[in-house]
Amino acid sequence: MNVIEIKNLEKIYNGTAIQVKAINGVDLNIEEGEFTAIVGPSGSGKTTLLNMVGGLDSPTSGSIVVDKTDLSTLNQKQLVDFRLHNIGFVFQAYNLIPVLTAKENVSFIMEMQGAPKDQIAKRTREILESVGLGNRMNSRPNQLSGGQQQRVAVARALASKPKFIIADEPTANLDSKSTENLLDIMEELNRKENITFIFSTHDQRVVKKARRVIVLEDGKIVKDEKK
Fold first, then answer.
1. Which value, to the nearest 10 degrees, does the dihedral of the CA atoms of residues 7, 171, 195, 32 take?
2. Are 2 and 34 in contact (CB under 8 A)?
3. Residue 219 region, left (φ>0) first, then alpha (ψ -120 to 50), else beta?
4. pLDDT tens-digit profile of 184-194?
5. From CA 195, how far away is CA 221, in angstroms rounded?
6. String of DSSP letters for 41-79
7. I want to staple 219 with a disulfide (CB 3.0 to 4.6 A). Which of 7, 24, 63, 95 is the partner?
8. DSSP-assigned letters across all residues of 179-197
9. pTM, whole model, 2 decimals?
């Protein structure tokens, strides 16, 4: 079943002297439970495409339907609510709140959803244990390694029980061992909970793990392979 349907998508940025087509006529379907990597050189449109799928940016033309919801029909408040309940984000820069502990960073999303306190506490503990950080729940980001911070970011992304995880260069700041651990965790969550993962990446270790690889060049899909 297709959970993301993209048709004739375009994104044009108007600079002072020239128009830039960051995304140029993309058609793409993503099925439930996919573990997909979007690759391509810098400037190929990877992050722009993910930002539009995640409702963080809007297309110039074309359509994006995510879980039967046409994102173009949502106002800003509705988009925020849709992201909160359906999409988890993992960014290259972790984006953790520095004054909060690992536990508080993960709980924050569920508090925004209005979940009961006992449910928040239980799920936070379970998620942090699932990413190997059950013993670091009370540590703040500056007390954690880069790999540990990114695992907190993954736990936070999972907190709301999203249907999709959008991961933009999630391994870019990690060493080989941390990358391997993080990818193993994501792969297991994908298989056990059928969460759809979509990566943008330059990292061949991510590409190797992916079961589908989509290559972008100049805002167009030039290759789409399933393993």
1. 30
2. no
3. left
4. 988 988 998 89
5. 24
6. STTSSHHHHHHHHTTSS--SEEEEEETTEEGGG--HHHH
7. 24
8. HHHHHHHHHHHHHHH--EE
9. 0.88
